[in-house]
Amino acid sequence: MSAARDPRPLTGEPLALDLLNTRWNKEGVTQDLLADTAGLTVWLASNGLDAAHPAGEDVLRHVRQAREALKAAVDGSLEEGAPLVDAVLAHGRIRARLTAEGAAEEPEFADPAWAPAWLAARNYLVLLAEAPDRIRACAHEACILHFFDTSRNGTRRWCSMAACGNRAKASRHYARSKES
Fold first, then answer.
1. What angle do CA 99, 16, 110 make, to 5 degrees?
2. Is 109 helix (H, G, I), strand (E, B) or coil?
3. CA–CA dist 144, 141 (Å, integer)
């Protein structure tokens, strides 16, 4: 049985932001990929997490909790989001090891159902350490998607130039032509 197609307009962002992007607006209505375990299966598969972490109700509940924690941190403030993200991170840890290939770190979980949620929260910490100013929400007023700005000069404004960027340009053009 093949996995269902991912219906989201923006995929491929770092795991933390990809989890936030499991909610998006379509024709003025907010869609939620994590409405059920079928959507969770799609999200896990799109992030290569499906083999090790089967979608169940516990995993879904934990991933939703992580999404709300990340939303508070990204769209609100670190002060507001920190205790919520920390609550997710409390369910796992990094185990440092020495292997034949050298130093290694691997996550460990008391309850494996927390793994996808923990990995997303941990990824957010990595993004904060790497470039916190490049974690962005789309500038289009009707869009709720997030992205990590990898542009050279760090000036990306839209989740997608083809979608939101084009809509904004068309709106400005329409407003200018209406004034004339």
1. 55
2. strand
3. 8
pTM of the model: 0.88
| Cα four-point dihedral sign 38, 39, 40, 44 | positive
Q: Which tokens sit at 83?
A: 């205790």
- The helix or strand, by DSSP H or E, that contains position 42, with its residue range, turns out to be helix 37-46
Q: Which helix (H) or strand (E) holds 171?
A: helix 166-179
Beta bridge partners of 26: 29
pLDDT by residue, tens only, the chain of 180 residues: 445 799 999 999 999 999 999 999 999 999 999 999 999 999 999 999 988 888 999 999 999 999 999 999 999 999 999 999 999 999 999 999 999 999 999 999 999 999 999 999 999 999 999 999 999 999 999 999 999 999 999 999 999 887 787 665 555 545 566 666
CA angle 30, 32, 33 (to 5 degrees): 145
Phi-psi region of 146 (alpha: psi -120 to 50; beta: other; left: phi over 0): beta
